[in-house]
Amino acid sequence: AKQTRERKLLGSPRLQSSPNLQTEASARAPPSAAMDARAPLAADEQLCAVCWAAGRGERVEMPCCGVEGSTTWYCRRCIEIICENAPGGVGMCPIGCGPITIADGVVSKAQHVQAKCLLCLQVRQISRGGQLCAACQLGSQHALRYECDRCGRTQRIPHPMWRYQTDGPGPFGTSTWACHQGCGDYTHWRIIAADVANVPPVDAPPTWGQQGAWLAQVRDQRHNELRAAGALLAAPADQAAAPREESQCSLM
Fold it and tell me: Which among 68, 69, 143, 238 would be 20 to 30 A from 197, CA to CA?
């Protein structure tokens, strides 16, 4: 009977009805300054807006934020790194326009179908061939520990509840999840301090200031690959950042 009660709690529409769950893309939108620190462009070269390596990669067309004539672009390998390190190979556009995939150098908007997630039991967008929604897929890979605002106990939750702590990692989140530690009801949660560092920087709310850390991780991997190939173009760290043209998100 307890298992049945817990299963019903997970499937309650109260989780689905949270306004935060309807605005997950906006919760991950990066600050515009996250990619401004670039080395200045030479007259005959352009830099990938992620790795800043001029002429070191194949330029890819972005289906979500690509603007004809824009000087902001991304190299194929950086987008591949983003998708390779994301659940199910579905990455996030570097400026937060939406989920993307890449195959044979072609970037596409991630394809989804409406179906019931086997974990949260909510009808959501499920990647084709998958069984979990993107949120639960990510949460299953990062099942972190949270504190219940009612009983004060800790529970490991396979869902990215950190997304709903929009005021920072300290305050409790605005969405609820079933407490199995004694409450037997939906309660609010906050990630415990010891697990804050385990939140993927790409997915932390913008108020946490982690967007730059995510792009830095992608950049570091790209630079390591270039160093291994003897093709790294290092830019002086003290050079002033060059102004860049802002990309426009075609989904907004």
Answer: 238
